[in-house]
Amino acid sequence: MKINRAGKWTLIVVATLFLVYVLQVVAFEARLGYNQPQNQSSIVIATFNENQSRHERVLRLVEIDGNAYVAANHWPRAWYHQALENPRVEVMMDDEFEPYTAVPLEGAEEQRVREIYSVDFQFRFRTGFPPRYFLRLDPR
Hints:
Layout lengths: L4 H31 L6 E7 L5 E7 L1 E3 L2 E6 L5 H8 L2 E5 L4 E8 L2 H10 L4 H6 L6 E7 L1
Antiparallel strand pairs: 1-2, 1-5, 3-4, 4-7, 5-6, 6-7
């Protein structure tokens, strides 16, 4: 199948726009990961990989019905996979780390948290529409 000159230019423009978008998402995620901004709803979660190496990440905490929830809202999500593999995590909510168990959500609880813990279209666009996963943090 031959593509005419206008079709080639259209393809080049679309591919260029897509590449610019992907680079913008990568730059946004890299800046966020490097700076790890914090505010009053931020926590630091410490996860441990298979070698028991400690990895700390700043996350946003949302409390719903007395339970603490965090979400994997970005493409970089090693902390989330580490928490699934080893749910014994540590969380700093005030000034020191406390032991918690990370529990993946399912069913009605996940749906309820997903509805309450929503993010707007602008955020989803800037982060490249990553899938969202949730964990409940239960004190140990």
